[in-house]
Amino acid sequence: MNSYASCEPCICDSHNHLHFDEFTLDLQEVLSRSLASGVREMLLVGIDPDDSARAVQTARQFAGLYASLGIHPQKAGVFSRDDVLSLADLAGYPEVVAIGETGFDLYRTPETLREQQELFAAHIDLARALGLPLVIHDRQAHDQSIGLMNETAGWDTGGVFHCFSGDIALARTVIDRGFLVSIPGVVTFKNADTLRAVVRFCPLDSLLVETDAPYLAPVPHRGKRNEPSFVQHTLEELARIKGVSPGEAARATSDNFRRIFLSRGPA
After folding, report:
1. R_g of the chain computed on alpha carbons
2. For residues 20 and 49, what is the distance between their CA atoms, to the nearest angstrom?
3. Residue 30 CA, distance from chain mean position
4. Which of 13, 144, 182, 249 is such that its CA lies 20 to 30 A from the CA of 209?
5. Contacts of 245 (CB under 8 A, 6+ apart)
6. What confidence tens digit (pLDDT) does each residue in 201-259 have?
7. Assigned CATH class of 11-261
8. Distance, CA of 60 to CA of 81 (rounded, Å)
9. Pairing between β-strand 11-16 and β-strand 180-183 as defined by DSSP bridges
10. Are the C-beta atoms of 70 and 46 separated by less than 8 Å?
């Protein structure tokens, strides 16, 4: 057990899909390992209406779990603006602390750019109406993401660019507009020099760590099913890059998590 795992502050996993089918058979064991590693709070992120409902249901069953309501950009064309706005029906639960994930994915589904834009704008409207922050997915679409946020004045919602994949210039833009940068296990990969440079550039009070479970497991678990306990390896690498102790990194990223997700409520 790492030194920061058994003491306050806790480690917060800012983004995972713990409610996915990959965890159906061993959810309790996964959560037990998370607690043993120091992870006390995590955000379960919905990718469609049913998935968002499952995120809320799971979050209500376990202390320290929270839910985000959203429709993933890869599902644009399947769901509409009305489907996004109808997620408000789930927003009355106190465990719901964010809207998303939303944004653009021009790597997997570039053919639905127009539909992705419509869904993204609807999420911004919903986040603003509910007074909740956004969780933004931005894959090979930096210009499009920044452009739509500018056009809709979406920055006023606050939120996070999850699984950050941009460079220092994008990080500067995101931070200057009040959003956080969330660092996945990719930062532990040998070829992740650009992401490590982003971590070096960003102030500690602008950073989160995440698993994106069950994806992107960090070294030494790369290639395995990712789970929340593995976020400690991402945190350790972030601490190494920033030249601080793991405990200081845990305090900072946990404080950031609570500030962005747990310090606000419906408008």
Report:
1. 17
2. 13
3. 19
4. 144
5. 3, 4, 239
6. 999 999 999 999 999 999 999 999 999 999 999 999 999 999 999 999 999 999 999 99
7. alpha beta
8. 27
9. unpaired
10. yes
